[in-house]
Write a structure and sequence with these properties.
The complex is a heterodimer of chains A (281) and B (268). Chain A has 281 residues and is an all-alpha fold. Chain A has a single domain, classed as MetI-like (MetI-like fold, Orthogonal Bundle). Chain A is built from 9 helices and no strands. In chain A, helix 3 crosses helix 5. Chain B has 268 residues and is of the alpha/beta class. Chain B has one domain: Rossmann fold (3-Layer(aba) Sandwich), CATH 3.40.50. In chain B, strands 6-7-8-3-9-10 form a 6-stranded mixed beta sheet, sandwiched between helices. In chain B, helix 7 links the parallel strand 7 and strand 8. The longest helix of chain B is centred in the last third of the chain and has 18 residues. The chains are: A mainly alpha (281), B alpha/beta (268). At the A-B interface, helix 6 and helix 7 of A face helix 2 and strand 6 of B.
């Protein structure tokens, strides 16, 4: 099936490439930071201290402060929470809708498939950001709307991917065997087909995670997503912009670097995970 | 017994299936295929690749809808389309079960052997505890009972596939090239197992195969198909010993044996 290789085939405990281990380790740190923010953050994320506006790195403020004197380290630590939870919610919504639609299209075929495929094609042709901004224009800015809108925007991607893997899975004779057993289509799909797609779909979602985080940060940066005084990273970059003109780089740089590192780490880990989850059995 | 269907476990009458071909035209996969199998009987369907034998097998279990013809199990006519209701669907499943060619893909990779059987048993409202008897019946032990397909050999997987088909307690068991993917020594074990099951349960077997040695071993009657048409049918021993049709003779001549000359077969 796969190309023969002399390298030992990896078990669950096999050593990962250095890059994957570094990226994975970093993500574990970010998750810990998000969970333990109240204990490790030196200040409250929204504690304003106008006397310490825009100070650089110092003993009191390891990563400096922004123009309101809010401690950037504390804000970045707390910001990890929204930055991680929001993409999970968004992808959860996209997975729920996308897997349902994709499986339905693959299973039923015919006009159902045509309808689902045409709808996803139309949504593909429509820029995701534009679609999201349109929904936000109708329902108002905010984190909830952003998550819902982006969840819908990511649905066609997930649906298309699910459809393709479900089509291949449906052709396997074990699905026929369930039919011959007299099992109904809905039950085969829900209890046997979708669980067998789980690994590939989860691998794909991990790859999408970095992109989803980026999209959310973009919305917040544009002012459509998280609203002040939230310590969302995208919003922090936007708030920090003004300070750049005053010669203080840190308020924009710190959250920007945080976004970049997390997104890159997710891509490194995600590609590896998709390889292993998608093909390995 | 005026109604011929009554005395047969399986009665097939005039099955017909055509497929549209790419670029126009139609391919006749099966044309006027008729046969009967008595309860506890065993019928072989032989032919080369593309002869339509797998299409016939899939029409029997309802995975392919025939264009014409009827399939009766114990005298009861099977609907050509899958029934909507669950109870009708399950009753239909208890008539005919199938064992697929490749046990590497015909088993759900997520389920252990035992789960594979309990899924089928529960679906049909039967007790989970029957799974152990079934595993024992096909010669799978405690280790295999908790193993997933990728942890088992081809022969073990095919044993499980047979057990899964038996879990439904069918009247007819269709085996589509069920030993083709196995080693010769494992083939013999599986064939012996099928012989025992047939003797013990009285299930009728329909054995689809390209392998004449296998068919000779396990079937009472044989049906030779070529390009969707039944060219010869009758008792296995008779047909294989004294074939009437030139195609059957060529098929027999194609089996390698001592002193065999492939050129003579191809030239014929």
């Amino acid at each position: 099936m796969t190309a023969p290789t002399l390298a030992p085939v990896g078990g669950p405990r096999s050593r990962q490439p250095l890059g994957v281990r570094v990226a994975g380790g970093f993500l574990v740190l970010v998750v810990l930071a998000a969970v333990l923010a109240p204990f490790v953050a030196p200040y409250a994320p929204d504690a304003i201290d106008l006397s310490a506006s825009l100070v650089g790195t110092s003993g009191d403020h390891l990563l400096g402060t922004d123009s309101s004197g809010q401690d950037l380290l504390s804000r970045v630590l707390y910001g990890a929470r929204t930055s991680l939870i929001a993409p999970v919610l968004l992808l959860g919504l996209a997975a729920l809708l996308g897997v349902t639609l994709g499986t339905l299209a693959a299973w039923r075929g015919g006009w159902v498939d045509t309808l689902v495929s045409r709808i996803t094609d139309v949504m593909y042709a429509f820029p995701g950001l534009l679609f999201t901004v349109l929904i936000i224009a109708v329902f108002g800015a905010g984190m909830t709307t952003s998550v819902l809108a982006l969840g819908l925007a990511y649905t066609p991607t997930v649906a298309k991917y699910t459809r393709s893997v479900a089509l291949a899975e449906c052709r396997k004779p074990y699905i026929d065997a369930y039919r011959v057993q007299g099992m109904g289509g809905a039950r085969i799909c829900a209890l046997h087909l979708v669980p067998n797609l789980g690994r590939s779909v989860v691998g794909y979602l991990v790859v999408l995670f970095g992109e989803a985080l980026m999209s959310l940060a973009t919305l917040s940066y544009l002012g459509f997503g998280a609203q002040p005084p939230s310590s969302d990273w995208g919003l922090m970059v936007q708030e920090g912009q003004a300070a750049v003109v005053q010669g203080a780089l840190l308020p924009a740089l710190v959250p920007g670097v945080a976004i970049a590192l997390v997104v890159v780490s997710f891509n490194v880990v995600g590609v590896r995970a998709a390889d292993r989850l998608g093909s390995g059995r | 017994m005026t109604d011929a269907g009554q005395e047969h476990a399986l009665a097939v009458d005039g099955l017909h299936k055509e497929y549209p071909m790419p670029g126009g035209g139609r391919l006749t996969a099966a044309d006027a295929v008729s046969f009967t199998v008595p309860a506890g009987g065993s019928l072989g369907i032989v032919g080369e690749s593309g002869s339509g034998k797998t299409t016939v097998a899939r029409m029997l279990v309802g995975l392919v809808r025939p264009d014409a013809g009827a399939v009766r199990v114990a005298g009861r006519l099977r609907e050509t389309r899958t029934p909507r209701g669950a109870s009708a669907r399950l009753a239909r499943a208890r008539e005919i079960q199938m064992v697929f060619q490749d046990p590497y893909v015909s088993l759900d990779p997520r389920l252990t052997s035992r789960q594979c059987l309990t899924t089928a048993l529960r679906l049909h409202g039967r007790d989970d505890s029957l799974a152990d008897g079934l595993l024992d019946r096909v010669g799978l032990g405690a280790r295999e009972s908790g193993a997933r397909p990728h942890g088992m050999s081809g022969g073990q997987r095919q044993r499980l596939a047979i057990a899964r088909a038996l879990a439904v307690d069918p009247k007819v068991l269709v085996l589509d090239e069920a030993v083709a993917a196995l080693d010769v020594s494992i083939q013999a074990q599986i064939l012996r197992l099928l012989g025992e099951i047939r003797r013990d349960t009285g299930v009728a077997l329909v054995f689809v195969s390209h392998d004449l040695a296998v068919v000779r071993h396990i079937t009472d009657e044989v049906l030779v198909m070529r390009r969707g048409i039944v060219v010869e049918q009758g008792p296995t021993d008779g047909v294989l010993a004294a074939p009437d049709h030139p195609y059957t003779r060529r098929l027999l001549a194609s089996v390698p044996r001592p002193g065999w000359d492939p050129a003579a077969v191809v030239g014929a």
